[in-house]
Write a structure and sequence with these properties.
The complex is a heterodimer of chains A (about 190) and B (about 130).
Chain A lengths: L1 H16 L3 H23 L2 H18 L6 H22 L27 H12 L3 H11 L5 H8 L3 H21 L10
Helix pairs in contact in A: 1-2, 2-3, 2-4, 3-4, 6-8, 7-8
Chain B lengths: L4 H7 L9 H96 L14
The chains are: A mainly alpha (about 190), B mainly alpha (about 130).
Amino acid sequence: MDGDHEATIETALRRTTQGDGQAFADLVREHQAMVFSIAWHYLQDRSLAEDVAQEVFMELYQKLATIESAAHLRYWLRRVSVHRAIDQGRRRKHRRESELEEMPEALLGNSGSGPAQDPMLLKRLRQVLSGLPEKQRMMVVLRYQEDLGPAEIAELLEVPVNTVKSTLHRSIEELRSRLTRRIGEVRYAFF
Amino acid sequence: MHFSEDDLKNALQRKDPGPGFTQRVMAGVSQGEEAKAATQAESRKRFAWRGWTWRLRPVLIGAVAAIALIIGGGLGYRQYERVQREHQQAALAQQEMMRALRITSAKLNHVLKRVNEPQVEEPKIRRQSL
């Protein structure tokens, strides 16, 4: 299945380089959730995240000839999304957690496995995540959204692997601390 | 309430940007291509213009040089005419002056001749009283 999927993407890549616009649209549809989500979870701003995602795909259109495979395409999209999202985040002021935009609850979905998720908890997690420093925040997004290992995260962010490991550990501690620090809210047990 | 890694994964699940996103990307790509084509057409036009002027450059230079020569030549000829006129006027003036000098000289000679001739008494003219 994965092999077939990869083959489909590579066929679309080949057709796109030959000028097939529909094939490029297929590539966009295939990867738009990944690109948009990296930007959205990092920036916590839907409009900015869409802008970043559009810029990433327009840059992809210019650089298609340099993409060698489906795996290379995923790597390239993640790398450019990460760097553009970080650049966009630097261009605006840091917002307090309470001012952050929230994804409408209708777009949240249960993973379909395990017990139903607490929407308030998930919302709160995203809010405290936005308060982390930029590199920490992006590491958490890449680790838990994209399920990447420390080596892959280190390569994308151009930092040493040990830095990623220690930063991820520190980030989880920080999230835990922020979640339990709020006055007047239900305290959550931490993991 | 527990907080797990799965909670974090669920909080950070991938989310679709919503309807119309792909169309907006494709519209942006089309606009970019049109802008690029327009820029390339403009560059080609500018290059063709430059190429055209390059080919005509020797002709243009020759034409400008010819015009400069004609204008210069005309001005030079007028200058020459003016100088010629001045020379003619000077020559006429000189002739006049020489003539005047000759006349003066002749008169002077006559006067000197009279002055240097011995004096001969002329008979007195008796005045008759009437």
